[in-house]
Amino acid sequence: MKVALHGGVATITLDRPDRLNALTFEEYAALVAWFRAPPEGVRAVVVIGEGRAFCSGGDVEDIIGQLFQRDMAGLLAFTRMTVDLVRAMRGCRAPIIAAINGVAAGAGAIIAMASDLRIASPRGRVAFLFNKVGLCGADMGAAHLLPRIVGFGRATELLLLGDTVDATTAERIGLFNRVVPEEALLAEAEALAARIAAGPAFANGMTKEALNRELDVSLDTALEMEAQAQAICMAHPDFRAAYDAWVEKRPPRFA
User: Do residues 44 and 157 both lie within one domain?
Assistant: First the structure.
């Protein structure tokens, strides 16, 4: 993978276009390490694929073929390694935007799903194709996160059938936030990331944490969690910076 830093925005490019940006063991490890400890000052992230694909999943030669040589302990070690990527992405306090420039299949669909926002070109398409190869459709957190994005019924359909979802359909069901012209995709994604990066990084991180934590709690628990989170944000300098900017009739300057 390649990483470019522009101010507070990091753009990660999956760069194996000859293999449709399929993931290797090394790619998994690099992505996990990066999302666990982004460079200082990163306030938003864009992920895109090089060439005509976003990410076609695990490399058939580098990963899939090798799995037949593993015992159950080895297979479990691999699947736990893959879910570490989702943990790292959801644990990254900087919001992540997936710029889906082509097929996002298998683990590629998961990377898109685990991102906070998804922008696609008309060529963008998603396939949770695990059951097509005899595997459980609920892979890498799909049965947990996907219903919360598209609803339980839609998620059930996508995970049981493994069909490819085109950009128009993905936008209609809420899987894609928006679809933009192909030539504008990266610019649109980076502009959105820059807009997020210009905002209050501390509060945005708290918002992402709240979205994560409140997936499985009662309303009463969620209300208390949000009361605590908001009180913490009120004690942060960004809150006073926004107030002073309003009084002085100028844009706020966040830390």
Answer: yes
Quick check: is 112 in a domain? yes
Round to whole Å and give the CA distance between 209 and 215.
Answer: 10
Mean pLDDT calculated for residue range 184-190: 98
32 Ramachandran zone, left/alpha/beta (phi>0; psi -120 to 50): alpha
| pLDDT of amino acid 14 | 98
Domain count, the chain: 2
pLDDT (mean) for 156-178: 97
With CA atoms as reference, report the closest residue to 158 among 178, 129, 136: 129
Q: Kindly indicate the confidence band of residue 65, based on its pLDDT and cuts at 50, 70 and 90.
A: confident
Q: What CATH number should be reported for the domain holding residue 236?
A: 1.10.12
CB atoms near residue 157 (< 10 Å): 16
Mean pLDDT of the 177-183 span: 97
pLDDT of 238 over the 90 cut: yes
Quick one: which of 212, 173, 213 has its CA closest to 90? Answer: 212
* Cα 86 to Cα 93: distance, rounded to the nearest angstrom: 13
CATH number at residue 112: 3.90.226.10
How far is 206 from 212, CA to CA, in rounded Å?
Answer: 10
Q: Containing domain of residue 217, as a range?
A: 201-247
Q: Are 39 and 10 in contact (CB under 8 A)?
A: yes
Per the CB < 8 A criterion, the answer to whether 1 and 12 are in contact is: yes
- Report if residue 254 sits inside a domain: no
